[in-house]
Amino acid sequence: MTTRTKPPFRADMVGSLLRTAPLKQAREAHATGALDDAAFKAIEDAEIRKLIGKQEAIGLKGVTDGEFRRAYWHFDFMEELDGIEAITADSGMNFKGGVGIAKSLRIVGKVGFSGHPMIEHFKFLRDNVSPGSTPKMTIPGPSMLHYRGGRKMINMGIYPQMEAFYGDVGAAYNKAVHAFYDAGCRYLQLDDISFAYLCDPDQREMLRARGDDPEHQPEIYAAMVRAALKDKPADLAITMHLCRGNFRSTFIASGGYEPIAELLFNTMPVDGYFMEWDNDRSGGFEPLRFLPKGKHVVLGLVTSKTGVLESKDDLKRRIDEASKFVALDQLCLSPQCGFASTEEGNTLAEDEQWRKLELIVETAREVWG
Fold first, then answer.
1. Is residue 95 included in any domain, yes or no?
2. Ranges for the Cobalamin-independent methionine synthase MetE C-terminal/archaeal domain (predicted)?
3. What is residue 346's predicted lDDT score, i.e. its pLDDT?
4. What is the CATH number of the domain that holds 299?
5. How far apart are CA 23 and CA 29, in angstroms?
């Protein structure tokens, strides 16, 4: 068994990292007008450079900007697409304990892609990683534009038929994928967590109650991913991340991957899957039996929701359990989700975050070489 030289890597991470104190202070000052745009960007740049260095120092090969320029993992990308408007409203996605996000998106025009500020964000990352590191970009998957609000957030006059909406979203994402590629991106991740939500009976009932068909929605979403990745360049590695919600260490959904495993692994042209398996809510490893040769699953065995450090022996035991259903060579290791899907971050300290990432690198070296 050898170390992988292309994504996903044996030791990998989902994308977001806890915002540092200087970045948080700068964001607050910028919001009040005490810090202008140029000064704020200079602090963002400096903090991202330090973050890149830390990732490389502990041995990660896929390096992100920690999503440091974002407030939210999903809204910040989607609201910059053509035809999208951000509004203050119940997102419809309440986390356990009643925690919600008072922001949503409304479709007010034809969805499209005519450029995006995150292209420049990627270029900064690209220009600041060391030789031998792979800059990784993360964006929400195309299904998220529909899953978060459903039909009620889509202007009926613009999209009287949902098929046209789904088609335009897929086409817009296809332009985005190629724009990142043209900027030098060779490792792009779609955070398309709706597929994991569709494994939860309560979420399926929510869809049914608002007028969607949970039996057909998975294939509709998969078709959007296929459209997004149409004519994908051969040297562009695409991964998909699935989780069950991640906001201040809370969650939304539960349920194993069995209902969507075959569709997930065999109908979408992605190279790897970051999958949450840090607790019993995620079910067992049996769905891995559907993984075809040539694809990889990154086992999210290390939780990003608490600072409690996992046992290396327990991680190895669980990797061994997973390898009963798929070849060990098709597996990798990561946290189950990002550490800060929103700027607030999860309830753990920065040093606890870095110890978890170091543990992942050490364990992967001992398991795969």
1. no
2. 13-348
3. 85
4. 3.20.20.210
5. 10
